[in-house]
Amino acid sequence: MTPWSAIDAIRRKRDGQALAAPDIQALVEGYVAGRIPDYQMSAFLMAVYFRGLDAREMTDLTMAMARSGDMVDLGDDPRIVDKHSTGGVGDKTTLVVVPLVAAAGAVVPKMSGRGLGHTGGTLDKLESIPGFRIALSPEEFRSCVKRVGAAIVGQTGNLVPADKLIYALRDVTATVESIGLIASSVMSKKIAGGARRLVLDVKAGRGAFMPTAEKALELARAMVAIGRQAGLGVVAVVTAMDQPLGRAVGNSLEVAEAVRCLQGQGPEDLEHEAIELGSHLLVLAGLAVDAAAAGARLKDLLRSGEGLEKFRQMVAAQGGESRVADDPDGILPAAPATAEAVSPASGWVRSIDALAVGRLTMRLGAGRERKEDVIDASVGVVLAAKVGDRVEKGGRLGTIHARTAGEAGEGARALEATYELAGQAVVVPALVLGIVR
Ligand code: URA
Distance (Å, rounded) from C-alpha 364 to C-alpha 269? Predict the structure, then answer.
């Protein structure tokens, strides 16, 4: 029998054939072990970029990557759920959804990430709460989840080393933007983290990885197909990311907004998205008969303050200053300088470029240009006007929170440039663009 050959497998994918599970396993295992060099993995990734993967191949790639390191076993309590966002600007939904669904009886042992590029990360946001610890020992993590029903931590152990290696290679070989590779990258991390019931928030638009609703729907279908083949309960919700979600962008500013949302004070788009995602989680957990009943329950928990109380308990259990739930502005770090962005004309807001706002917030110090950069929790942007709002000439579009007056002033001018105005009333576009089950 001829021995297995990486060249042969690459050639078959190059020519548009589907690879068998053992081929995919051998490629991933060989690469992680150092037997397959970067140039062969790069050629394989480029072949996948052009030829794509079918649902079975995507699942095989996902499972081969998931098994490349530790696999967390969270048990099979049906109430255990997880949520993942593909990344957006101002997306603090996790901070609202997790305590809300935990208040409804779901169990959320959540591993989150740091900011990536112009998009923020839940861990960076939580770390703006004084004392909050995202690095818990496995025992502490279990204990928090048991007592509170939810905990949010950083990745521990050796989870999916194959993804770390392959992602780094994709980044430098122009092969990031492949539906099959993105779907297997995301799903391998969720499966290795022990998720069995998962809601995916797939962002579409200017501030997202997927520029259009069609592309985002394709990615959503791919991830749901992988989930189905791997035996997970998965619902994907495609949501708009053309303008930032909510009004705040920047770590402590976003925590403050999430707290106000849990206090029942909106903003409307954030509350709407949190209820939408949370309702699918409750249905998957068997805690509601359908999404409508789940949504009504979550709204009750929001109005009654039980979601906020759960947030307070979670923060306290992870060592954070729990008074943040009563007085976020008094507890969270505040930037020393502010400046206002003002409208150059009267009109209606047609668009706010989420990507530009994300990049501006990064430049203010809220994100990292390089992995080792230290972020500033206090800086960011708070939008006063959103798409559809009427603004007057000289009226406030938003406020910049910065380290210096100079940076605040520059930021304000840059924020003004992210707004596009219309001469007549603008229809506010839908937030939820599709649901894939
Ligand atoms: N997020 C991931 O985790 N992986 C990708 O490939 C893209 C976005």
Answer: 25
The alpha carbon of 269 is separated from its chain's Cα centroid by a whole number of angstroms, namely: 16
- Do the domain assignments include residue 74? no
Residues 144 and 179 in one domain: yes
Tell me, yes or no, whether 29 lies in a domain: yes
Residues 323 and 341 in one domain: no
User: Which member of 125, 189, 206, 221 is catalytic?
Assistant: 189
Q: Ligand 1 centre and the CA of 177: distance in Å? A: 9
For residue 182, how far is its CA from the centre of ligand 1 (angstroms)? Answer: 5
Beta carbons within 10 angstroms of residue 421's beta carbon: 18
Residue 132 falls inside a structural domain: yes
The Cα-based distances of 435 to 77, 140, 277, 388, 432 in angstroms read 25, 35, 10, 24, 8
Q: How far apart are CA 53 and CA 45, in angstroms?
A: 11
Q: Is the CB of 62 under 6 A from ligand 1?
A: no
Cβ neighbours of residue 379 closer than 8 Å, sequence gap 6 or more: 250, 335, 361, 364, 365, 366, 401, 402, 403
Pairing of strands 380-383, 233-240: unpaired
pLDDT tens figures, 161-212 = 999 999 889 988 989 889 999 999 999 999 998 889 999 999 999 999 899 9
pLDDT of 386 reads: 98
Q: Are residue 188 and residue 317 in the same domain, yes or no? A: yes
Tell me the C-alpha distance between 280 and 192, whole Å. Answer: 22
Q: Is 182 in the pocket of ligand 1 (CB under 6 A)?
A: yes
pLDDT at 51: 98
Residue 120 and residue 45 share a domain: no
